[in-house]
Write a sequence for this structure.
């Protein structure tokens, strides 16, 4: 068990096994859809966790990138005649560029300036999407053409379960690799102490920017997946509430924890579905559960459990 | 440590209980699914819709159900989020295996879930306003409320009656406001109306004085039309009086709930809007076919919920009874048969008007279903 917790590659392997086995247990397409939503959100949270848990910066506008990715899938095929895969890449490139432009000047500053800047940026993206009604369909949203790859119409909960599940495993691998590389070590040292990191000759601003751009790319891809899964996008995909939800997922699951990102996403996606039995009180119960988790497990669910296991004699 | 473990266990147990609770119902019922915005920005739509559906399903079941079977209602709250609505729509289809759907409070949600029900070949009656939900006609999709173009049509009709032809338009950037503005501007020349000033405000703005001042300073404005939804129109109405505009102000049926009058206060007096007959149920002439249904619903809703009636709940009532009649005619809950029967709905008298569906019209309402209403002394008053 200890070795399992300390070896991130084993951990990613375990995630892959779960993704592979789950369809045999899940009774219907609805559960497949919920699982796909968990994976899609987890991809975005993984990126965000890289930024929050390792580079020590908060983004309150990640839904902006999510929204750009989603609307790229809606707009690209209609206005530019791009196939879906090219729109996905295009959306990702736009998100990365935007993150670069926002992050480059701001990440040179100390403190939580990025949180404020991204807060504004996220809201601007949502505003543009809902105001440019002629292009984006405005608040009512717009339809997304189904992706067609080599004549295969990529649609349905089961298909997207596999695409999002496999993508999540790849995303986790990328993050694990990154964390265990010199870049990752630099990021972790920044999180522990920026001054110490600077003294060691680490270009703090550059690494923070790198983490921010990567997190934007993850969020954008997740947004594109969601648009393709739903076949429809509305401005709520870029909304402030989603930004907050992503942050909550990361904090709840555990900052700096790969498994935590997935667990956090799973809890926030599955709980509202499970709590419908409480009818009017579901929001109260949801809020209460999150508060209880954060009071009892302040470092996040996964790190807290890992610490518990480690404390026991082997 | 034990506390942590116990709370984790409880959490897991709650989750498991929730996931499986829905599967435990008996099968011998007709299942009606619903995704509504009971909370969030669109809750003023979803809340009366939910209460109405629950109230009537309870009554129908108490009276023996439909075709000898009880109705079973599955209502989920999408929190005004289209993505959540889509997940719940999938749940209705895959998990609850419903026979028909009455859903979609806001147009965004209604459009987002449309595809799910079309793929599953389920009769879907939408409660949202946007005309594009049923334009072009889609086999499985029907819609209850009047659309934005109808609002323009009715307002223009009234303008012409009053010999007013030069109008200013002020519209919100919400979905409703935008769609209606586009329709009004496109329709105006055909109706002999000139739009002399066209102003826009943000859906969340708290002051529209500048736009209204622009309209006031435009020569020859004989009336102003406000295309909008939610709180915007109430602010426009207040500002309208503040800047001293005195020409008639028209609102759309998007404001047809008491909360608009409460928000706008005194300023609302004199405002005209096209709306469902429900708002002025008691004032309708006895010859009006809608009178009986409207009074019945109004009395019942206000008695049971203690809230003033709104047309949005009325649409939920109409949808439910139209579906029940279709179920009775079909003699079963067979989805294709029920769909065909909904399409054959003729002379259905609801709170929103007399509904005549056809293969080319899945809305079934015409301008006659609207009543022109003027607000007098803080209450709706029928313009005859």
């Amino acid at each position: 068990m200890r070795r399992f917790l300390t070896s991130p590659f084993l951990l990613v392997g375990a995630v892959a096994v779960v993704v592979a086995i789950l369809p045999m247990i899940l009774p219907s397409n609805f559960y497949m859809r919920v699982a796909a939503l968990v994976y899609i959100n987890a991809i975005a949270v993984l990126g965000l966790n890289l930024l929050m848990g390792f580079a020590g910066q908060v983004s309150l506008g990640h839904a902006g990138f999510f929204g750009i990715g989603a609307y790229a899938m809606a707009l690209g095929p209609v206005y530019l005649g791009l196939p879906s895969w090219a729109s996905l890449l295009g959306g990702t490139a736009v998100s990365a560029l935007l993150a670069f432009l926002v992050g480059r000047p701001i990440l040179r500053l100390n403190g939580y300036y990025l949180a404020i800047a991204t807060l504004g940026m996220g809201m601007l993206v949502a505003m543009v999407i809902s105001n440019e009604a002629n292009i984006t369909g405005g608040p009512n949203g717009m339809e997304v053409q189904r992706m067609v790859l080599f004549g295969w119409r990529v649609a349905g909960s089961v298909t997207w379960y596999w695409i999002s599940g496999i993508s999540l495993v790849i995303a986790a691998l990328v993050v694990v690799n990154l964390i265990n590389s010199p870049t990752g070590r630099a990021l972790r040292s920044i999180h522990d102490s920026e001054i110490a990191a600077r003294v060691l000759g680490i270009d703090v601003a550059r690494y923070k920017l790198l983490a921010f751009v990567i997190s934007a790319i993850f969020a954008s891809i997740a947004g594109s997946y969601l648009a393709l899964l739903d076949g429809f996008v509305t401005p709520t995909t870029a909304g402030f509430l989603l930004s907050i939800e992503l942050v909550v997922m990361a904090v709840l699951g555990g900052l700096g924890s790969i498994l935590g990102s997935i667990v956090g996403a799973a809890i926030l996606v599955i709980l509202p579905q499970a709590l419908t039995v409480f009818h009017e009180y579901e929001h109260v119960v949801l809020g209460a559960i999150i508060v209880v988790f954060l009071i009892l497990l302040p470092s996040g669910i996964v790190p807290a459990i890992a610490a518990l296991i480690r404390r026991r004699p082997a | 440590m034990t506390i942590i473990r116990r709370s984790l266990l409880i959490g897991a147990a709650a989750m498991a209980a929730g996931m499986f609770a829905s599967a435990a119902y008996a099968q011998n019922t007709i299942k009606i699914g619903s995704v509504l915005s009971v909370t969030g920005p669109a809750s003023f739509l979803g809340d009366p819709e939910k209460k109405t559906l629950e109230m009537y399903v309870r009554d129908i079941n108490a009276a023996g159900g439909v075709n000898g079977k009880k109705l079973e209602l599955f209502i989920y709250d999408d929190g005004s989020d289209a993505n959540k609505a889509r997940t719940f729509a999938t749940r209705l289809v895959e998990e609850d295996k419903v026979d028909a759907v009455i859903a979609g409070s806001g147009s965004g949600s209604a459009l987002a879930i449309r595809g799910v029900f079309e793929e599953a070949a389920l009769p879907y009656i939408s409660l949202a306003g946007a005309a594009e939900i049923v334009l072009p006609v889609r086999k499985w999709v029907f819609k209850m409320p009047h659309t934005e173009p109808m609002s323009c049509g009715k307002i223009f009709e009234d303008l012409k009656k009053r010999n007013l032809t030069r109008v200013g338009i002020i519209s919100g950037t919400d979905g409703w406001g935008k769609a209606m503005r586009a329709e009004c501007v496109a329709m105006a020349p055909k109706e002999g109306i000139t739009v002399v000033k066209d102003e826009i405000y943000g859906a969340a703005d708290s002051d529209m004085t500048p736009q209204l001042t622009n309209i006031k300073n435009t020569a020859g404005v004989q009336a102003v039309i406000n295309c909008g939804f939610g709180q915007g129109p109430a602010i426009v109405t207040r500002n309208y009086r503040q800047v001293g505009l005195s020409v008639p102000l028209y609102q759309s049926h998007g404001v047809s709930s008491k909360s608009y009058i409460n928000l706008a206060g005194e300023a609302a007096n004199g405002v005209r809007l096209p709306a469902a007959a429900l708002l002025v149920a008691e004032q309708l002439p006895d010859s009006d076919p809608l009178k009986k249904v409207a009074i019945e619903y109004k009395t019942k809703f206000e008695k049971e919920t203690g809230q003033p009636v709104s047309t949005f709940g009325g649409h939920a009532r109409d949808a439910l009874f139209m579906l029940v009649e279709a179920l009775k005619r079909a003699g079963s809950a067979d989805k294709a048969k029920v769909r065909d029967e909904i399409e054959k709905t003729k002379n259905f008298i609801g709170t929103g008007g007399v509904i005549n569906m056809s293969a080319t019209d899945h809305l079934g309402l015409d301008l006659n279903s609207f009543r022109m209403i003027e607000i007098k002394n803080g209450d709706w008053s029928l313009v005859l």
User: Anything to note?
Assistant: Chain B has a mean pLDDT of 88.
